[in-house]
User: What shape does this take?
Amino acid sequence: MLHVANLTAQILKNIRFTLREGENLTILGNNGSGKTTLARALCHLLPSQNIFLEGKNMGEIAPHLRSRVINYVPTTLDIYDEYLSVSDYLELNQFESADPRKREEILEALEIEHLKHSPCQNLSSGESSLLLIAGAILHRARYTILDEPTANLDQAKKVKIYRLLKNGSYFQNTIIITHDLNLAYKLGYDVLYLEEGSVRFFGGCGDFFDPSHLEGCFGNAVQNIGGNFVVNYDEVR
Assistant: This one.
């Protein structure tokens, strides 16, 4: 069980929620609402004494063990070694006891097997996003936080990542940060909605996407058309 107790850090104010084993979470909110700051705090990249795993303070877990418990996957891949290949990167993400054939399987599942000998620095933004996800799958942390995993992807690849997440066998417990309301709705995870650093909503996906609640968060800027959420540009000022 992952428990956040009255977390206040930087922009965040009195954040409280619990994520039990087997539960997944989508974090939503406008730009600057504190989504990535919260993710960094959960991983102890932003140290805090208010985050607990099974009753133990996250800061008291040794760093090499904490990395196996919770893994933050950023939006962009920053590689400074011009010789590091895709295959090398994935090997660094995979624990020693893991089957090396798993790397080939994940590359194939994400349709980037043709890139395995390519330098990471040569990848496009979309290819880098897929590599980050592949690395996260191989890392196999107990909790995986994916920050905007579909932001740089074309439509077909977005569907692929949705299906991968929906499959449920690639990650143990998943926390998704996204602006994509369609992804959030289709996944059906519990929703944590941040507004100016505070929790405005924490609960079930169906409750969050209830029309009256959705209007309270977004006004008339978002429309539900047949279960798909689109921006109503005529209402955006």
Q: What stands out?
A: The domain at 2-235 is CATH 3.40.50.300 (Rossmann fold). The chain is about 35% helix and 25% strand. The longest strand covers residues 2-9. The mean pLDDT is 91.
